[in-house]
Amino acid sequence: MYVARLLGRFGGVKVLAAGLLLQGVGTVAMFAPPQDVNLAALLVTSSVMGLGHVFGVVSFITVMTTGVTEEDRGVVGGLSQLPRYVAAIGVSGLSAIAAARTDALSSGAVPSRADILGGLHAGMVTAGVVALAGALLVGVVLGRRTTVRVC
User: Fold this and answer.
1) Is residue 144's pLDDT more than 80?
2) Where are the beta strands (DSSP E) in the chain?
3) Closest by alpha carbon to 12, among 149, 142, 116, 144?
4) How far apart are CA 78 and CA 45, in angstroms?
5) What Rg value do the Cα atoms of the chain yield, rounded?
6) CA 20 to 30 Å from 103, out of 55, 70, 133, 147?
7) CA distance 120 to 48
8) Which H or E run includes 36?
């Protein structure tokens, strides 16, 4: 409901860019906490990341479906779900990055907490940079549009 108000006030493109920016900042901020971080810091960074994700998903679907004719709504609705499936590949890639970094930091058969945290940091920074790049791309490419294209 809150996102709907923001969409009405600022428009889908701005809310989408802001959502991706928030998600990227929250994700990259998860890189900063040390090994012995407290729960409050994790909750704050996770909340920022999650809030940005919600803003991004809702505004993405709004931007994608705005101005679409009734005949094309089903196709566009289906296409709007495509990123969810592509993201599953991204999760696998981020897991591979985290595992490779953990393995590189580990000096023995069983990685230490610091090694695992180093691997998680590598995955989180990668995810955050991708979200920030998405925010920049949305701002540059969609920000120039002044009208909605009707298919």
Assistant:
1) no
2) none
3) 142
4) 32
5) 18
6) 133
7) 18
8) none
Structural domain boundaries in the chain: 2-142
Per-residue pLDDT, averaged over 95-110, amounts to 93
**How much of the chain is helix, strand and coil, in % rounded to 5?**
80, 0, 20
Question: Binning pLDDT at 50, 70 and 90, where does residue 98 land?
Answer: very high
Q: Position 70: which residue type?
A: E
| pLDDT tens-place string over residues 63-86 | 888 888 888 888 888 888 888 788
Intra-chain end-to-end CA distance of the chain, in Å: 28
Tokens of 108: 């023995």
As a whole number, the mean pLDDT across the chain is 85
Separation of CA 83 from chain center: 11
| DSSP-derived 3-state class of residue 83 | helix
Short-list 26, 20, 51, 22, CA closest to 41: 26
* Helix-helix angle 2-10:12-29, to 10 degrees: 120
